[in-house]
Write a structure and sequence with these properties.
- This protein is an all-alpha fold.
- It has a single domain, classed as Orthogonal Bundle (Urease accessory protein UreF).
- It is 70% helix and 0% strand.
- It is built from 11 helices and no strands.
- The termini are far apart.
- Its main location: cytoplasm.
- Keywords: Chaperone, Cytoplasm, Nickel insertion.
- This is Urease accessory protein UreF.
Length: 226
């Protein structure tokens, strides 16, 4: 990968970008509140399980398809996968999160004048822009390789989950780094899964996570947004 593409990937993958990723826990805070996650081992197990059973089987494959659609300037395919992703957000919290972050990243891309006019018009034609759509737009606009972008998206998600555990369990910084290091082979395997799944194998079936998200929406004391 060229140095410029690598730098762009690092920029896109950072949860510290001004799109608000760090302000959401995706149900993890409710899992911590209920005692399901309470130490380094359970935090690592939770993140790895969610990575393989949810993110690698739905969010990441749809993101990869959106990258392909933007790269070929296929507006119909962008709309198709965008609508499917938004329709699959099964709690108010999950839906608000992806729309808020997608809007913020899309606006940032427009303000920075990323990509060409055709790319921007496809993005702006979407009634709602979830995060995978905005991230795919930026990936193509910045010429980040597809496989690297998927791995970067997965790492960003995992890093944000680890940060939530560090702040909320709480865990120490060393424990957080240890979890991230141990997840490297898991992330590589998850990226391989995401890039290999056919359309009819995509699934975000995770009722337990959906229930935790709904509980988090009404949780009395919380750090993260709902």
């Amino acid at each position: 990968m060229h140095a410029s593409a690598l730098l762009h990937l690092l920029q896109l993958s950072s949860p510290s970008l001004p799109i608000g990723a760090y302000s959401y826990s995706q149900g993890l805070e409710a899992a911590i509140e209920s005692g399901r996650v309470g130490n380094e081992a359970s935090a690592r197990e939770w993140i790895a399980h969610a990575l393989h059973e949810v993110v690698a089987r739905f969010e990441a494959p749809i993101f990869a398809r959106l990258v392909d659609a933007f790269a070929s300037r296929d507006a119909a395919a962008v709309t198709l996968w965008t609508e499917r992703f938004v329709a699959a957000r099964d709690t108010s919290e999950f839906r608000a999160e992806t729309i808020q972050m997608g809007y913020s990243l899309g606006k940032l891309g427009a303000d920075l004048k990323l990509g060409d006019q055709a790319l921007l018009e496809i993005l702006q034609a979407q009634p709602e822009v979830p995060l995978p759509t905005a991230l795919a737009f930026a990936t193509v606009a910045l010429q980040v390789p597809r496989e690297a972008a998927v791995l970067g998206m997965l790492f960003s998600w995992a890093e944000n989950q680890v940060l939530a555990c560090v702040k909320t369990v709480p865990l120490g910084q060393v424990a957080g780094q240890r979890i991230l290091l141990s997840l490297q082979p898991e992330l590589e395997r998850a990226a391989g899964t995401a890039l290999a799944l056919p359309d009819d194998a995509l699934s975000n079936w995770s009722p337990g996570l959906s229930l935790l998200s709904m509980q988090h929406e009404v949780q009395y004391s919380r750090i993260y947004r709902s």
